[in-house]
Design goal:
The chain has five helices and 14 strands. By secondary structure, it is α+β, with helices and mostly antiparallel strands. A hairpin with a 4-residue loop joins strand 1 and strand 2. It is globular, with a radius of gyration of 17 Å.
Length: 271
Amino acid sequence: MSKFKAGPHFANDADIEAWNEAVRRHEANSTEPVMVSRSPCVLLFPNFVSEEEADQSIAHALPRLRSQRFADQPESRTSFGATFGAGFAAPIIDRANRAIGTKRSDGLEVKRYRAGEKYQSHHDYFSQPGRPMKGDRVATFLVYLQDAELGGETMFPWRGGTEPIDPATGWPRRPLVFERECEEGYQPENALKLPVQKGAAVLFYSLTPDGEVDPYSQHGSCPVQEGEKWTATIWTRANDRFETDTSIEEWKANKYLQMCYSDQGQAISTE
């Protein structure tokens, strides 16, 4: 495993404490996560994939990369990517599903970001206010295959869960300047920017324990300034959108979700 580097941006001392704990677990080759945010629920896994798995993922994706620009918003996502459903990606996908307790996902999507490329903040779920979608995405594993020399942090603008939500749109009321949302002076005061680190993964939840979408799970990829950043994304889904008492109770009992929502956990709070 490559050695963890010091992060370029921390909002407060608690962020530094959480990152230092991740460094200790990385050096001990621990796979147990560290909580870096309660709202949204964000966990950092120091050793989610091996260097060999990371390098193999890049090698498989490289000849298959295609532009990921949206036709209607071409500047919102400027990365190149490739998607895999099984084969070499199966062990990583299964690892993510087992951790979250889900049985299916959208596969594994490898993304490459070069200098200047980014993905502006967004939600991973598709449900709209008052219109929940059956089988929606419930959580995301973002695996770091290669860290950029500078930039490329994963950003959660609404960490803390206090920003008023517009009931009509389901988004925080305060507007963001998407073109500059990663710059100091333009991001909300409690925004979290996590530096990428090869082999690590970030798990964040799109749903709260009661099965409702979490608008504070909005996230983005800051522009790479130097080098190349490679990631692999796994979006896990719920088969029944928690329509039965049994499934919602199983969801609430997930040990990693409880790190954020249980006061008895051993997680590090960043609030």
